[in-house]
Specification:
This protein has 500 residues and is an alpha/beta fold. It has 22 helices and 15 strands. It has a seven-stranded parallel beta sheet, sandwiched between helices. Strands 12-11-10-13-14-15 form a six-stranded parallel beta sheet, sandwiched between helices. The structure holds uridine-5'-diphosphate. One of its GO terms (molecular function) is UDP-glucosyltransferase activity.
Length: 500
Amino acid sequence: MEENGSKKSNLTAYFIPYLTPSHYLPLFQIAKLFASRGVHVTFLTTYHNSLSFRDSIDSLNKLGLDIDLDYVHFPSKEVGLPEGVENFSASPNLEIAGKIFRAFFMLQAPIEAKVRAAKPDCIVADMHCFWTTELAANLGIPRLIYHVRAAFALSAVDAIDRYTPYEDVKSDDETFLLPGLPHPIYMTRSELPQWIQTPSPYTTFSNKVKEADRNCYGVLVDSFYELEKDYIDYFRNTLERRTWCIGPLFLHHDLVLKKLNSGLDNNNSKAEETDKHPCLEWLDKMPQGKVVYVSFGSISRFSSAQLFEIAEGLESSGQPFIWVVRKTEGESKEVTDKWLPEGFEERISEKSIGMLIQGWAPQLKILEHPAIGGFVTHCGWNSSVESLSAGLPVVAWPLSAEQFYHRKLFIDVLKIGVGVGNMKWSSMIDGTDELVKRDKIENAVRELMGDHEEAQERRQRAKEFGIAANKAVQQGGSSYDDLTAVIDELQRLKTSNDVA
Ligand code: UDP
């Protein structure tokens, strides 16, 4: 099947996302990729979340992709949420997040009804939608799962669940080995999610997700073979999980659109020029590879005290920077007034050594700008993949979710990371009570951006991964071929189901 949207297969797929952009955006990218190979795709979400896909889907339909958008009612009233708050990025506190989570469970019945009525040939669902494994089994079709994490993290989580090595240590900061993995990887109990350390209702949910994951047909990973071949082989061969690594998803997607757009008269590039974010204009004036980009994803926020330390650390590093700031809500005015050292903004602007973005940064464009030479990241998998594709070394500063595993991947396996920051896992919404001091931040940035041999080697290795990432999605590349393989497999299953 060709990647042109014109050769239709008779395969139909339902895509079921989770309620947060860093999960539903990559799943939407997979949906587009499937549609670009001729699969008839339906993306099924809630009403207000669906609004953000409407325009894209209209454009994709015009380009010939067979992709539909459908939605179910989100039970705002039933859980006491204001109309329109349907995803976690709109939840400033634990109370609202808890209500969204309750509403998420209530979506199971209406989504199941839609899928049963449509009888698709397969379901591609986010990891959180555990009930889709059973639904698919009842319908006699495969369910593919999408996690927002590396094959390394999938393997590490399996080792933790299978061997519970954290039970054999005496304290939260004593290290233990993750058994069975291709490299000696050590962690501490404090780096593990709270629900593993202390059983809670989330532990029950997490166990259901894991069981559904183990029983589903196969796993789609936003990664590429050349990046973590030992872990992809381990996951596929030792753990015997059907796995397709089809990333970096966002790079593929560019290729698909570029190809579909060719021949169409559109003014996208002109519009982009006019809308250029001021930080990109600032970067245009900076020397190549000298600016460090500092960002901690779309959800995590820091206290004023931590922001103060970051500001001091960045300024003393002497390295030009772009820093995306997200502040914890609910602190007193007295505290939040002091989140920046006195005169900080004036100094960095006068000397043109830094830029603060309080809001949404054009991260992809920043990372691919030639002036950027390194990334201080929370190791969220989307940011990680974007950074790897741009060929950048990182300061790895994890906070939550699977980010602590990704720090290990960057530092111990890929050897393109410098470690700093939190040693204790914290909930994304609650935030952390650890304070990372300015000298640690300064030293990590200097180490990352330095010219000594080790820094240069890190830089060179990162560059090679960037080249490999871009090759993986080209025709004949590993991810391109894995995408072909998964669709061929689904087609084969459909044909054998039809015959049976
Ligand atoms: N992102 C962005 N601008 C911002 C913050 C985040 O474009 O100011 C994007 C980033 O490029 C990535 C996603 O949001 O695609 C964040 O996902 P990730 O998995 O890294 O972290 P999370 O937000 O889930 O913690």
